[in-house]
Amino acid sequence: RQLGIRVHKVNVVWPLEATITRDFAQGLQEILVVEEKRQVIEYQLKEQLYNWRADVRPRVVGKFADSDEWMPEAGRFARGSSPAHAAASRTGAGHAVGAHGHWLLPPIGELTPALVARAIAARIARFHGSPQMRERVAFLEAKEAALARPRVSVLRTPWFCSGCPHNRSTRVPQGSCAVGGVGCHLMAVWMGRNTTTIAQMGGEGVSWLGIAGHSGTHHIFANMGDGTYYHSGLLAIRAAVAAGVNITYKILYNDAVAMTGGQPVDGPITVPQITRQLAAEGVGRIVVLAEDPRHYPREAGFAPGVQVRPRDDLDALQRELRETPGVSALIYDQTCAAEKRRRRKRGAFPDPATRVYINELVCEGCGDCSAKSNCLSVVPVETEFGRKRAIDQFSCNKDYSCVAGFCPSIVTVEGGQLRRGRAIDAPAGEPHDLPEPALPTLATPWNIVVAGVGGTGVVTIGALVGMAAHIEGKGVSVLDMTGLAQKGGAVMSHVRIAARQETLHAARVATGEADLLLGCDLIVAVSDDALSKTRSGKTRAIVNTGQAVTGDFVRNPDFEYPLAAMKSQVTDSVGDGAADFVDASRLAALLMGHSIAANIFMLGYAWQKGLVPVSQEALMRAIELNVVAAAENRAAFLWGRRTACDPAGVERIAASAEPEIATHRVSTGVDEVVARRRDYLVAYQDKACAQRYAGLVERVRRAEQAVHAGSTALTEAVARGWFRLLARKDAYEVARLYTDGEFERGLHATFEGDFRLRFHFAVPQWGPVDPDTGEPRKHRYGAWMMPVLRVLAKLKFLRDTPLDPFGRGAERRLERALIREYEATIETLLDGLQAQHLDMAAEIARLPESIRGYGPVRQRNADAARKRQAELMASLRAPAPQRATAEVG
């Protein structure tokens, strides 16, 4: 008001009410219109003020700002440029200069408070300046520059839920592509599945109508959900039939509006009804792929000629349909995984007594089970012998797609029950023996940013704190930033608490204004959105370092979690001593029996640190009102409090409940690496095999010490790579690792009750090959296989002898060839070894660690390793200047 600034909040953006608008504009010299996306208000405002006299008509600025500058000493605008214009241009976040000047407020993306603040400052700076305003703009620019600097980062990209039908249904055959629309299936766009573009509801595949005759591609697939089909998707199919193009609509019938929370589809719709509608519209071939074809009786009411086939036929069927002229339809019938989980909890959906389990010792860590299932419940396990795979039994939705991974380590367990971890009782006297923290006084509003993974209860944390503040009569606002992020993506909750509601003027925490960053997930905590809210000297950070799986791990089995780098980013942003890092996921799993309690654990930790300005009584009441798992949440909150007070004591309690698995303890030096592998090879074959291993490693050690005393990089690389090749997992070794007792101990540690095993094996040289995948087909075997494996394990003396019935297979021949090649390669590296070559020699020696998997998977990895070795050896032999160039490249 002192500056002559008026604010008009438009509640109805169209049509813009003329009288109020004109009254607001009277006597103004400039109006800045701030609106999301396109210029809906700005264009109406200009039209309403167009006929005003030039001397009274205010200037209207919105998306663009030109080079006119307000000159207060002259009382007019003059052409020219100024620092203010440069600042205004920069708020366009890299957008091109428009026809009317510079972008002031970009028309795409989100208008953050920082963008709006800088735009307002750029206009005010033409006639007014103050130290406060200049300081604030300088801070915003510095924060933007800091976040723009290159840094190690990982994206928490939204992903299909564990067991989601889309994990399979959105695949297309080699050489085909697909288009998407509105629904969870649009996430296939960033999953490397040849799925491009998205469309509005009712526009799925319609873009193909115009380009079909000009693209050089004769066919395309279009994804569509059952909710979209019922809403307006049928119109798109009708248009495709009218256009006569070659297109296959893949309609997922998942029995729910999955993307927005699992609501029922608005209207009666069944798979048989869809087939009859499609047939009536003129769709040619219609096929139903069902998770369980037996669900449909002979008189189900399908349209004439409709086939019902199992979902395993997906690839073969799609190859057939892409050669079918005209419009065809594939209806993929499988219930939404999230809905299955909800209904099973309510007893409204069958819960099969079958679970998947991975024999960690047999697992090669190749990631084929992740590639086949695209599932986030297949998680990494770091061991002495490399990264392996395991099934997160708590998040698994029993889809069983991972069983298709070409690997003998995957078994299914029928019957019995999952042995859930037992919650540890809190020490006697809690919570009364814990010191009461000094909570914030709320002289000014207190700002909390909760950052975590969608679907893990991040929104629940904001809701609990908000309800606790409401119970105490405090002012509170909670803003959840979710959307598609609920599908395993980044979720943030802005919680603002004040003594009185009227002191809260915005729901979102502004740049640099967070008092607490509660990072329930480290990856989301170091995102630009989260770190932009922090400021050194003001913000405290409490961050969970537990490593939740991302889509990057599904695509890349060697994905490395940059833990140290991300922790440094948090510390740099909030300042030394202002960040606490705690592995809440691990502690919650050990103390509470499962990791889902980690977020409430984090809340208890932050509260004990005096960073959540509501009482414990109010929080406990909020937990009770939430109803779900109230007792567990109260216990998790108390464990978080105790950890904040006595982290070492809680760690001792948790460690006592942690199972001791020998292979999970990683060696601390090269001598231990060699000794543990030498012992393994004795059990694998005999002492002669172990001596062969140790002999080559010792030769390398002596050669390395001769050129660089104290260096062990090459020796350790050979110790690991040479072992990988010698301890190859042929039929005898797989049998030994199933019957030596370790597998059964792990199995009984995970399951209890009366259960049966089912093995899923493929014998490449004897079994049939799948014509679609080119891989030998896997077959299911019963528990009777265990005695067979015990006998087979005792026949290891036949390995590499003329009597070995498995020795003539392509995979065994490959393994023997790799052993010979490795020995020759190491001899070449040792001949004339020099200190400056050690790093590259070690990289070459480590290559066998990338040769993982079984059958075709192992062959592909071996081909890639051989190619990489040829490149490195060529670089090693090159003259020094060329080698340096090759290394940089």
Count of individual helical segments: 32
> Proportion of β residues?
5-15%
Amino-to-carboxy terminus distance:
60 Å
Enumerate the strands of the largest sheet in spatial order, edge to edge or round the barrel.
8-7-9-10-13-11-12
Poorly predicted segments: 69-101
| Structural class label | alpha/beta
Helix content: 25-40%
**Mind telling me the C-alpha Rg?**
32 Å
Write down the overall geometry: globular
How would you classify the quaternary structure?
single chain
The largest β sheet comes out as: 7 strands, parallel
DSSP strand tally: 25
Task: Provide a descriptive summary of the structure in words.
With 889 residues, the protein is an alpha/beta fold. It is built from 32 helices and 25 strands. A seven-stranded parallel sheet has the order 8-7-9-10-13-11-12, sandwiched between helices. It has a six-stranded mixed sheet with strand order 19-20-18-21-22-23, sandwiched between helices. A hairpin with a 2-residue loop joins strand 15 (378-383) and strand 16. It is globular, with a radius of gyration of 32 Å. Residues 69-101 have low confidence and may be disordered.
List its salient traits.
6-stranded mixed β-sheet; alpha/beta
Nutshell version of this structure?
The protein is an alpha/beta fold. Helix 19 packs across helix 21, helix 23 packs parallel to helix 25 (713-726) and helix 24 (687-707) packs antiparallel against helix 25 (713-726). The model is unreliable at 69-101 (pLDDT under 50).
